[in-house]
Design goal:
- The chain is 88% helix and 0% strand.
- It has six helices and no strands.
- Helix 3 runs antiparallel to helix 4.
């Protein structure tokens, strides 16, 4: 039993290591993280319902999971191919298309939640009533841009 617990613990450690590798090395994953952060902030400020929040969480998980799988496929392909290989290119393009399909579906869900559900209007009304929140959000934008474009470059 103790051996099984250790293996489970190690599985989590390996999963978190993989997540860290993706955060550090993949700009697109950081884009998804930043988008999820701002969507979450606006969902909270717009008083999204529990059902709407659950849909958004599913979207975050699907898109980031697809990006993790895409990264794994790309790294394996890069490792195996010694030069240009049309099959490898197609595999990588198909994996990228999987991320795109997930992200597009998430945009559709976001439109339904934020526009049709009225969450965006509620969030904007709250922000305009509390301008300090708008200032905090504006200050976070350069930090988010640094995280997206420069975080992985620092050694």
């Amino acid at each position: 039993m103790k051996k099984n617990i250790r293996k489970l613990h190690e599985s989590f450690l390996h999963a978190f290591r993989g997540l860290g590798l993706c955060i550090h090395g993949e700009r697109n994953f950081r884009v998804h993280m930043v988008a999820a952060f701002y969507v979450t902030v606006f969902a909270l400020l717009g008083r999204a319902s529990a059902e709407q929040a659950a849909l958004l969480c599913i979207c975050f998980g699907l898109t980031m999971g697809a990006e993790l799988m895409n990264t794994a496929i790309e790294r394996l392909c890069d490792r195996q191919a010694s030069g240009y290989d049309g099959f490898v290119r197609n595999a990588k393009d198909i994996a990228a298309a999987g991320v795109f399909v997930c992200a597009a579906a998430c945009v559709a869900v976001g439109v339904c939640v934020f526009l049709a559900g009225g969450v965006l209007l509620t969030a904007l009304q709250y922000i305009f009533a509390h301008l300090w929140i708008a200032m905090v959000l504006v200050v976070t934008v350069p930090v988010a841009l640094w995280f997206i474009f420069y975080y992985g470059r620092i050694q």
